[in-house]
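Need a sequence for this fold. Nothing fancy.
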């Protein structure tokens, strides 16, 4: 009975989070920026290793097969079928939710504004799979309290590590990860409360057909899909922008950049020198947020660490570790480093092994307009500056 009520509470919290996402955007942005500030080459290698591990197509089936051996050997068909359906239907519910909700990931460029970031499938599926494994083993074996507690602590640690990896690599916003945890925990509580109830195969087939019909209807009627905002979707228009499109742009240092070409339908340029310069014309001496669309030139070496230092008017702004692939980086430019008028922005590679960056845009936003209608933007700015 307790688990049934808990599943209802978790479902209500999940729906409430969807409704209150617009009020949580500053939290998403702050958590994302804070995590990016903590990045290092070693953590990058560890996070990528975890990502490759969780992406392996055989891990979940092998784990499910090993767990299914116990009820299969004991011929407890109901528990075996229940376990397989709990994991399978739970994964379908998660994918259905991701299909219904449109939300851009932190790893997409702002002009894309599409994606299936909500909720985190990795977090939800890990909770469902590990919770289902524990439920089966608990029914098959006599588990002491200390062993059960250790198992739950282990499951919690694994889920937290997976959640950290998704946030660290910029695959999800914080609210996506929390929503995945709520959705999966609610489903697990719901099915655990009914674990002993025998359900006919016809009933499960009927539920599967209902889910398939919902998928089909949503595919036919895309207008019913929900669009959730992200920090990208509320970004205002930039007050200044480097023109990468013009072949003779005065915004770029002479002979420091390649000729422009197109990628993703946008003009881009590559650094020709270890230090290349762009010029931003800012109207006032105030706090700005600089948005930089960039990727390393090539991705031939797995685990490579790409460092780049950014200077404003010959004063250091930030040293970044670039993700592979296109990313959007937001950099605070405090007013004490800004000049009203022409500002020189320099990009410097940190070592001979570093590869040039490919730039799509450099935009400047007054800080007060970068978070339109957000509460607490002053606190966010001061936290980022520290």
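Here you go.
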């Amino acid at each position: 009975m307790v688990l049934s009520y808990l599943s209802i509470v978790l479902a209500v919290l999940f729906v409430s989070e969807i409704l209150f996402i617009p009020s949580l955007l500053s939290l998403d942005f702050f958590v994302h920026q804070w995590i990016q500030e903590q990045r290092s080459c070693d953590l990058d290698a560890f996070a990528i290793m975890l990502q490759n591990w969780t992406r392996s197509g055989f891990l979940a089936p092998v784990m499910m097969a090993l767990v299914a051996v116990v009820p299969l050997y004991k011929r407890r068909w109901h528990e075996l079928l229940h376990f397989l359906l709990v994991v399978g239907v739970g994964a379908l519910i998660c994918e259905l939710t991701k299909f219904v909700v449109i939300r851009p990931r932190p790893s997409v460029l702002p002009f894309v504004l599409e994606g299936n970031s909500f909720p985190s499938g990795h977090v939800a599926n890990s909770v469902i799979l590990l919770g289902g494994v524990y439920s089966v083993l608990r029914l098959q074996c006599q588990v002491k309290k200390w062993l059960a507690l250790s198992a739950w602590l282990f499951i919690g640690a694994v889920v937290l590590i997976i959640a950290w990896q998704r946030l660290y690599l910029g695959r999800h916003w914080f609210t996506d990860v929390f929503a995945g945890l709520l959705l999966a925990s609610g489903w697990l509580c719901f099915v655990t409360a009914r674990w002993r109830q025998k359900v006919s195969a016809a009933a499960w087939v009927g539920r599967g057909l209902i889910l398939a019909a919902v998928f089909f209807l949503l595919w036919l009627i895309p207008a019913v899909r929900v669009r959730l905002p992200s920090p990208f979707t509320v970004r205002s228009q930039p007050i200044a922008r480097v023109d990468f499109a013009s072949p003779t742009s005065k915004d770029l240092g002479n002979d420091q950049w390649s000729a422009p070409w197109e990628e993703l339908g946008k003009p881009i340029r590559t650094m020709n020198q270890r230090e290349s310069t762009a010029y931003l014309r800012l109207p006032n001496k105030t706090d700005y947020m600089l948005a930089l669309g960039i990727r390393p030139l090539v991705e031939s070496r797995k685990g490579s660490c790409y460092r780049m230092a950014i200077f404003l008017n010959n004063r250091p702004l930030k040293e970044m570790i670039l993700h592979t692939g296109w990313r959007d980086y937001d950099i605070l430019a405090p007013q004490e480093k800004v000049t009203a008028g022409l500002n020189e922005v320099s990009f410097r590679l940190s070592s001979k092994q570093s590869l040039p960056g490919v730039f799509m845009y450099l935009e400047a936003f007054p800080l007060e307009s970068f978070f339109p209608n957000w509460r607490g933007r002053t606190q966010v700015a001061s936290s980022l500056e520290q």
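For context: The chain has two domains: 2-227, 240-385.
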